[in-house]
């Protein structure tokens, strides 16, 4: 079906790889496709190939729960995620493709005194960094999201919430397709069903190109944007990454009429929920607690999350779940991404987005394209180096990840 889609309406070409490109991007997820698009659009680098082992958008980009927000804790994060929010607001026009960005609001619940303190600290920090975020009482939270149960007799009563109104959702497939069509129109070759099997380095140690299922492709610059498989690919170049890969699951219900107005997340009880424009409840959880490259996880995670959803939203108790799946999320020790040059000349890496990189897609691609084109980081991604794990200059966002991982 997908190969038919490749040619239907000629959304993008299906070229065979050339022998050489200026830049090769490994991984046709949202971040890789956005990087290729901005390399061509903003930096005039048109000799670019995006090499994808499966189908474009088939990784975490096509498997996530589509939440977009920027209310992380540190100023470095504010710079990166706010840059993305700015690009989300004009992305459909930029790509001439409806990415269905919906600023419906993202509400993060507090259930304990500790949660209240952390949320309010966040809100004050966000205010200093120019990130929109506000505190709601339980009553104000219910007014914003009427299905929310704020009764005092539940196991984890709602003690308030942090609301980012500019946060919301976007259609994940459309983001991949929009960037793919735009990059293709600018001359980027997107080579699907072609796994990268090696990274070749020359006598001087610099990158020379990539080995693939369709042969060697020469390139002076290689950007690895392979999410959960990044560690295995960087190993091919002899670069050890501070990453662990875990399954992260999501599930959707049968579609119903509009019943849920925003996104609600609870880090404490490991559940979050929104409703897609097709009408399904889109529900997520924390990661499975074992390292794996599997795109599935344990049923206990989904059961635990459904328990939490049923307690917070009692009238969903009779909904039937339709699908449950997983992705492979690449997690760094401080839960912040790595968008960086590497010790290998000509090799760049964009990874470590963990459970929350979809929201950064346009901003990530934009600054990573700059990093590859100029061979130096944009000021926004300059702090997000591999080196920080050696120097200790961490950007610890574990509390802001909003998803237990
Ligand atoms: C269930 C789930 C829910 C999530 N929910 C959210 C959310 O609500 N909000 C949010 O912000 N983030 C969320 N995330 C995280 C988000 O999806 C990711 O951080 C983001 O999509 C990563 O984008 P990417 O382009 O880097 O990775 P991907 O889309 O995974 O792209 C990487 C690509 O590399 C390819 N690849 C791997 N190895 C090779 C190889 N050897 N050769 C060639 N290609 C290769 C893969 O096939 C894949 O297509 C969620 C993730 C999951 C799994
Ligand atoms: C699944 S992660 C969603 C988020 O962190 O906004």
State the main characteristics.
binds [methylthio]acetate, disordered N terminus, binds flavin-adenine dinucleotide, 405 residues, 8-stranded mixed beta sheet, alpha/beta, 18 strands
Report on this model:
This protein is α/β, with parallel strands linked by helices. The chain is 28% helix and 24% strand. The protein has 11 helices and 18 strands. The longest helix has 17 residues, at 113-129. The structure holds flavin-adenine dinucleotide and [methylthio]acetate (MTG). [methylthio]acetate (MTG) binds next to loops.
* Count of DSSP-assigned helices: 11
Order of helices and strands: HEHEEHHEHEHEEHEEEEHEEEEHEEEHH
Structural class: alpha/beta
Profile the largest sheet: 8 strands, mixed
What is the CA-based Rg, rounded? 21 Å
How much β-strand is present in the residues?
15-25%
Average pLDDT works out at 95
Query: Which cofactors or ions or other ligands sit in this model?
Result: flavin-adenine dinucleotide, [methylthio]acetate
Given the C-alpha coordinates, what overall shape results?
A: globular
* Gap between N and C termini: 35 Å
Low-confidence stretches: 1-8
Number of strands: 18
User: Portion of residues in helices?
Assistant: 25-40%
